[in-house]
Amino acid sequence: MAATVPIAYQNSTTSSPDWLNKGDNAWQMIAATVVGLQSVPGLVILYGSIVKKKWAVNSAFMALYAFAAVIICWVTWAYNMSFGEKLLPFWGKAAPALGQQFLLKPAVLPATTHYFKNGTVQTALIAPFFPMASMVWYQCVFACITVILLAGSLLGRMNIKAWMMFVPLWLTFSYTVGAFSLWGGGFLFQWGVIDYTGGFVIHLSSGIAGLTAAYWVGPRSKLDRERFPPNNILLMLAGAGLLWMGWAGFNGGGPYAANIDSSMAILNTNICAATSLLVWTWLDVIFFGKPSVIGAVQGMITGLVCITPGAGLVQGWSAIIMGILSGSIPWFTMMIVHKRWTLLQKIDDTLGVFHTHAVAGYLGGFLTGVFAEPSLCSLFLPIPDSRGGIYGGSGGAQIGKQLVGGGFIIGWNIVVTSIICVVISFIIPLRMSEEHLIIGDDAVHGEEAYALWGDGEKYDDTKHGVHSSDSTQLSKPSVGATQVT
C-alpha cells in the first residue's frame, strides 16, 4: 500500500472539488464496506460456528467487540499513529481523525523529503484522489480484521474482560507500528519492502501475536482440547464465503484507485485462493483418506493470505504457483510440524492462526519478492525499478528486503504482545476460571447460542423457562420463565 500525506483543507463551494475522482472514491468506499463485512458478520459467523457449542456466543462476541472498539480507537488516535506525521522511523504521532481538517489531494512530496545515508531517494510519498474520510474508514476496517484474526488463537478460554483491555493496547502498540513502518512512510516503506495489502501488516502480525498471546493466556480445558467439534459447519461455510468474497475489497482497494492494478489484484486473489483450497483438499484425501470441509476452508484462507502482499504485482501464473505453495506449506506445518514440535504442542492456538496467517503471510511476502513483475510494480509502487528476483536486476535484493521486513514484524509482535499480556495479568486474570471453562457461554455471558439440549446437559425449567416439548407448560409459564407478550 502506498503511503499518503495530508494536504491542508481548502474551503470549496462544492462537495465535489475538481481534484476528486468520484469513481475512485466510490470504489474505495465499496472496498472498505466489503472488508468490513469480512469481520461483521463474516468472522463473527465463522468463529461462532467453528467452535464447540458452548463457546459460540463468546467467540462471536470477541469478534464483535473488537470491531467496535477498534473503530473508536482508530479515529481517536490510532489512524495518525499509522498514517500521520512521523514521531519515530517506525511510528506516527497520535492525533484524532474525527473531521475533515484535511483532504487527501493528489500530491507527491519533493524528492528531498526522504533520503538514505548514501543520499539517494528510494521512495516518495503519494496521495490518492479522494477525501481523508474514505482513507480513514478503509484503513480502519483493516485494523479491525487484524485484531479479530488474532482472536482466533484465543477462543474458548480467554477472560472476556482481559480481551476488552487487550484490544486497544495491542492496536496502539503493535498494529500501528507495522502499519506506519510499511505503509505510512516509515523506514521499511522507504527501504522498499513490499506489502501490497497486508501480508505482513495484517496476517503475519496477527498470526505471531495470536501465538504469543495464546502462550501467555494458557490452553483451553483438557476436555476442550481433546474434543472441539464445530457446532455448525454449514454456517461456518457461510462465514468463510463472506471472507472469500470480501477479499475483493481487501486486495482490490490497495491501489486507492479503480485501475488496472486493482483488477489484477482481484483476479489473482481468486486464482490463488481456489488453487490453495484444491491443493489442501487433495493433500487431505491423499494422507487422511477423505476431504475435510474445515481443511478446505483453511486452504482457502491460506491462499487468500499468501496472495495479499503481492496481489496486484504478480501475473496470473505466479498466483497459481503461490496457491500451490500456500495450499501445501501451511498444510505441512499444521499437520506435520505442529504435531512433532514440542513448543507448538504446548501452545494452544485454537484455530491454528499461526499456520493459516503467520506462515502463509510470511510465505506470501517472500514469494512477492520472487514474482513481483516490473511493469505492474510501476503502476503501484513509487519505488524505482521494483521487481521480483526472477526478473533479474535489483530483484535479488528485493527477496532479502522482504525477509528482513517480515522479521521485524515477527520480532516486534513477540516482544510487544508479551509485554501487553504480562501487564494485563497484573490487573485481571488472562484466562477464565475453571468453572467458566467447564460451563462456557452460560457462565460467561448468561446466554447460549442454541435452544437445543444434548451433550449430557440437564434441563432445568426453573432456569431456562418453557421447554418446547412440554405442552403442559404452554398455558402457564414455570417459575422464573420469561413471558413474551
CATH superfamily: Ammonium transporter AmtB like domains
Largest sheet, order of strands side by side?
1-4
Mean pLDDT, nearest integer? 86
- Structural class call reads mainly alpha
Oligomer: single chain
The CATH class turns out to be: Mainly Alpha
Helix content estimate: 55-70%
Strand content: under 5%
Count of folded domains: 1
- Cα Rg: 23 Å
CATH topology: Ammonium transporter fold
Major beta-sheet overview: 2 strands, antiparallel
Distance between the termini: 54 Å
Number of helices: 18
Count the beta strands.
4
User: Low-confidence parts lasting 5 or more residues at pLDDT below 50?
Assistant: 5-13, 105-125, 464-485
Overall 3D form: globular
CATH architecture: Orthogonal Bundle
H/E series: EHHEEEHHHHHHHHHHHHHHHH
What topology does this entry show?
Elements: E1 7-8, H1 22-50, H2 56-83, E2 86-88, E3 91-92, E4 102-103, H3 132-151, H4 160-182, H5 187-191, H6 199-217, H7 222-226, H8 233-252, H9 260-288, H10 293-307, H11 316-340, H12 342-346, H13 353-371, H14 374-380, H15 395-427, H16 434-439, H17 441-444, H18 461-464
Antiparallel strand pairs: 1-4, 2-3
Helix pairs in contact: 1-2, 1-3, 1-8, 2-3, 2-4, 3-6, 4-6, 4-15, 6-13, 6-15, 8-9, 8-10, 9-10, 9-11, 10-11, 10-13, 11-13, 13-15
Keywords: Ammonia transport, Membrane, Transmembrane, Transmembrane helix, Transport
Membrane topology: Multi-pass membrane protein
Domain Ammonium transporter AmtB-like: 26-450
